[in-house]
């Protein structure tokens, strides 16, 4: 008779203790944790079991609690350790000792232990955070000792046990001082930038204080160093300040950043720097790009007031530049008739009162701003587009006014003006960092494209929406190529002529149609079982090879990795943390965690995933929801993923 499998609530583990042989025990999930610890202590003749606890021997070495014990798997190596309360008390005493070496060792250990939520709660409960804050405020710690102090402080605050609002003004001044100093130790600078970013994002009152204490000039100076990690933390703090600045002062902050040459420094020291832009830096550049374009939202959502003479004068200026209206005829009625004729030639839908064309939002007044920029900065182009079309008598004229308004609305939609940044997105466009008026220049390139495509399509007014659909496809295809400059965008758009769009559409349609012909359908039905088996084998082989995933914690710039692969017998998923992204295959023995495939209950996607239901400082948009999936397994555990796109191997948010 075959042996009965062990009960699901019994886990076989090894427990270590320095200087003793490991104990191999059957960990009974039904038995109180205190009882198990007492039995382990008895095995080594240790008294006072209440002074001890169990921790993982590998990885982050977290404490085992009644809440987390269910995560222990067969074959896990645990370590008997002093309890979190005892450890917190001892470290609190040691970090206040007179011996510098003893204090340094204690702070080093504290920096590591503070990531553990169980220890953190005990340490904070003993006023440990206040002690660390006083050490920083004293200004007597330097170098490694200060770096470990700041690391521990940040790790403890990240657990969300204590409100950031409790931070003192002198602490903020001290941290800001490290950031404002031109020469400061890299590790101290990195942690100081991270602490200030967390303050800004988590507390309105601290945002105001940090904004007062931190000089933008010095933050921008940190972007000119060769260390990309420092650059990333600096730009993250700039973004946090930008995000939390009241709406009525954001334009002012943008002007300050422009005066300090932020765009040019990012372009020369980061985008065109000596090293490739890493994922987290790409995310921060994307956030800055979004926040910058969101400055357009106010104008985009502002309707024109037809009775406002100043606004009407802008439309008059467009007419004057196009038709050189210096020699205006005398007589009000005659002038009005000529103006109406001119506004019709300018392509307005309401030539009698063109102000009415700007009463719909979006794009509101933003469209008029774009048109005036084109007319004043690229006057020759503007005049050519207008005169070229108003001189045609064959109904093929492209209405400039209507086109410019609709194009502005389209560009706002493509670039999601007014939307919050999405936490999972790295989609920044280098070309938007190459010009101080990147938005307006982008419009100017695209309005010329629209005019060119209109002529290529030999369009009439009835074809307006059809033309806009083609133009949208041209722009989105060109943007997907990530042109490094606006000039390169022009090159890409020139290659995406109307005939090329038709060819691409036809090619894509044919590749779909080919699969719908009767002989193909018959052949597919015949070989489908074999193909499905091949696909299954290919996917299993890929799962067995495994994949490395990027793991995001509370602070995304602390980049960590983990690896997951299927066992060769297809019965177990192995996964575990890595110090760095591996080159090639990771052996099973390095992957300390595992999930029996038989325990997997379901795979969830999109908004059903647990990690998509969590609140975030940045918006989880529709795109991220489409890329999310989770593996649910017994008893009630979950492994959460977010893929970078619909085609590549998934990246992950890590085990939660």
From TrEMBL:
Domain of life, per lineage: Eukaryota
Alphabetized SUPFAM superfamilies for the sequence: ARM repeat, PH domain-like
UniProt-recorded Gene Ontology molecular function terms: SH3 domain binding
One GO cellular component term noted in the UniProt record for this chain: cytoplasm
Any matching Pfam family: ELMO_CED12
Matches recorded under InterPro entries: ARM-like, ARM-type_fold, ELMO_ARM, ELMO_dom, ELMO_domain-containing, PH-like_dom_sf, PH_domain
Keyword Cell membrane recorded: no
Gene3D superfamilies on file: 6.10.250.810, Leucine-rich Repeat Variant, Pleckstrin-homology domain (PH domain)/Phosphotyrosine-binding domain (PTB)
Residue spans crossing the bilayer: none
Residue ranges constituting the ELMO domain according to the UniProt record: 310-479
Annotated compartments: Cytoplasm; Membrane
Keyword flag Mitochondrion: no
Function comment: Involved in cytoskeletal rearrangements required for phagocytosis of apoptotic cells and cell motility. Acts in association with DOCK1 and CRK. Was initially proposed to be required in complex with DOCK1 to activate Rac Rho small GTPases. May enhance the guanine nucleotide exchange factor (GEF) activity of DOCK1.
Protein name in UniProt: Engulfment and cell motility 2
Organism, scientific name: Cyprinus carpio carpio
């Amino acid at each position: 008779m075959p042996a009965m499998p062990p009960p699901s609530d019994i886990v076989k583990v090894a427990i270590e203790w320095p200087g003793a042989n490991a104990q191999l025990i059957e960990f009974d999930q039904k038995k109180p944790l205190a009882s198990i610890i007492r039995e382990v202590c008895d095995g080594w003749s240790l008294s006072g079991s209440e002074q001890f606890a169990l921790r993982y021997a590998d990885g982050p070495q977290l404490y085992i609690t009644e809440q987390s014990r269910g995560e222990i798997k067969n074959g896990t190596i645990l370590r008997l350790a002093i309890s979190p309360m005892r450890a917190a008390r001892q470290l609190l005493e040691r970090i206040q000792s007179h011996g510098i070496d003893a204090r340094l060792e204690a702070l080093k250990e504290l920096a590591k232990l503070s990531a553990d939520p169980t220890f953190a709660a005990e340490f904070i409960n003993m006023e440990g955070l206040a002690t660390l804050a006083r050490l920083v405020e004293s200004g007597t710690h330097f170098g490694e000792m200060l770096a470990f102090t700041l690391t521990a402080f940040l790790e403890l605050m990240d657990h969300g046990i204590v409100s950031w609002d409790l931070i003192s003004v002198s602490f903020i001044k001290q941290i800001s001082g490290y950031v404002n100093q031109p020469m400061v130790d890299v590790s101290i600078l990195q942690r100081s930038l991270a602490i200030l970013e967390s303050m800004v994002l988590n507390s309105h009152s601290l945002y105001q204080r940090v904004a007062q204490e931190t000089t933008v000039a010095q933050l921008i100076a940190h972007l000119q160093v060769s260390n990309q990690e420092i650059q990333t933390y600096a730009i993250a703090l700039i973004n946090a300040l930008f995000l939390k600045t009241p709406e009525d002062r954001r334009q002012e902050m943008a002007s300050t950043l422009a005066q300090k040459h932020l765009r040019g420094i990012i372009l020369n020291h980061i985008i065109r720097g000596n090293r490739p832009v890493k994922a987290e830096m790409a995310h921060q550049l994307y956030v800055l790009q979004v926040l910058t374009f969101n400055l357009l939202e106010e104008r985009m959502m502002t309707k024109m007031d037809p009775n406002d003479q100043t606004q009407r004068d802008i439309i008059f200026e467009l007419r004057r530049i196009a038709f050189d209206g210096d020699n205006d005829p005398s007589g009000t009625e005659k002038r009005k008739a000529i103006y109406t004729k001119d506004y019709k030639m300018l392509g307005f839908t309401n030539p009698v009162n063109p102000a009415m064309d700007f009463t719909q939002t979006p794009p509101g007044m933003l469209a008029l701003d774009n048109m005036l920029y084109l007319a004043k900065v690229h006057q020759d182009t503007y005049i050519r587009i207008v005169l070229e079309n108003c001189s045609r008598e064959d109904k093929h004229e492209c209405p400039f006014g209507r086109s410019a308004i609709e194009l502005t609305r389209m560009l706002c939609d493509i670039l999601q003006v007014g939307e919050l940044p999405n936490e999972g997105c790295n989609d920044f466009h280098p070309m938007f960092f190459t010009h101080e008026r990147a938005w307006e220049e982008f419009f100017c390139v695209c309005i010329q494209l629209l005019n060119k495509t209109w002529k290529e399509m030999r369009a009439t007014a009835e074809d307006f929406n059809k033309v806009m659909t083609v133009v949208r496809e041209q722009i989105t295809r060109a943007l997907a190529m990530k042109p490094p400059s606006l000039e390169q965008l022009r090159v890409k758009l020139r290659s995406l002529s109307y005939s090329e769009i038709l060819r691409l559409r036809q090619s894509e349609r044919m590749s779909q149609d080919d699969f719908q012909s009767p002989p193909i359908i018959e052949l597919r039905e015949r070989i489908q079982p074999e193909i499905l088996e091949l696909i299954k084998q290919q996917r299993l082989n890929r799962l067995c090879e495994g994949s490395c995933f990027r793991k995001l914690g509370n602070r995304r710039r602390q980049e960590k990795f983990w690896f997951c692969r299927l066992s060769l017998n297809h019965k177990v998923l192995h996964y575990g943390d890595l110090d760095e992204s591996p080159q090639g295959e990771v052996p099973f023995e390095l992957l300390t965690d595992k999930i029996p495939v038989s325990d997997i209950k379901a795979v969830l996607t999109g908004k059903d995933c647990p990690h998509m239901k969590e609140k975030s400082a940045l918006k989880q948009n529709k795109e991220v929801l489409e890329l999310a999936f989770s593996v649910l397994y017994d008893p009630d555990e979950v492994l959460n993923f977010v893929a970078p796109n619909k085609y590549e191997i998934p990246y992950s948010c890590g085990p939660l």
